[in-house]
Amino acid sequence: MQWQKILIPLACVALVLTGYQSYGWAGVAAATGALMMWLLLHFGRMMQVLKRAAQRPIGYVDSAVMLHARLRPGLTLMHVVAMTRSLGEPQSPRDSQPELFRWTDASKSYVTAEFHGGKLRTWELVRPAPAPV
After folding, report:
1. What are the structural domains of the chain?
2. What is the three-class DSSP state of 1?
3. Between 25-53 and 77-84, two packed helices, what is the crossing angle to 10 degrees?
4. Burial per residue of 54-73, b for 16 or more beta-carbon CB atoms within 10 angstroms, e otherwise
5. How far is residue 133's CA from residue 129's CA, in Å, rounded to a whole number?
6. Partners of 124 in the beta sheet?
7. Is the dihedral of CA 124, 74, 64, 50 positive or negative?
8. 116 contact partners, CB below 8 Å, separation of at least 6
9. Could you read off the pLDDT of 85-133 as tens digits, one per residue?
10. Contacts (Cβ under 8 Å, ≥6 apart) of 104
11. Spatial contact of 89 and 58, defined as CB atoms under 8 Å apart
12. Which residue in 41, 105, 112, 119 has a CA-CA distance of 20 to 30 Å to 127?
């Protein structure tokens, strides 16, 4: 179970209650304003990431090797999309867990990433065999 789904709403409620206890309705207004600003910052970042990803082909990355080096367990899909500036090419059926996405570079090397619950679990770099000389 993801604790963020429980802790973040509880922290928001605690912030509003603390604002009320400390400053009355002005504290509630300040806490609500702070929470709205936090939500707007996250929404703005998400929109910026998606705007950049819309400018590139699906599943393309400049360097699959560099992407492989920068990945770490626990990254969200939004963070990986921000890194690659491209939406991943889906490799798994829609609405199924785990989700598999692939990013390919110009040399046909690719990284396949497995996300479970929106968080990166495993990834694999595959490089094509060198052409015989």
Report:
1. 4-52 (no CATH), 57-126 (3.30.1450.10)
2. coil
3. 50
4. eeeeebbbebbeebbeebee
5. 12
6. 112
7. positive
8. 97, 98, 99
9. 999 999 999 888 899 999 999 999 999 999 998 899 999 999 988 878 7
10. 59, 60, 61, 64, 89, 110
11. yes
12. 119
Question: The tokens 């867990």 sit on which residue?
Answer: 97
> pLDDT tens across 27-83, in order?
999 999 999 999 999 999 999 999 999 999 999 999 999 999 999 999 999 999 999
Reduced to 3 states (helix: H, G, I; strand: E, B; else coil), residue 2 is coil
Please state the length of the chain.
133
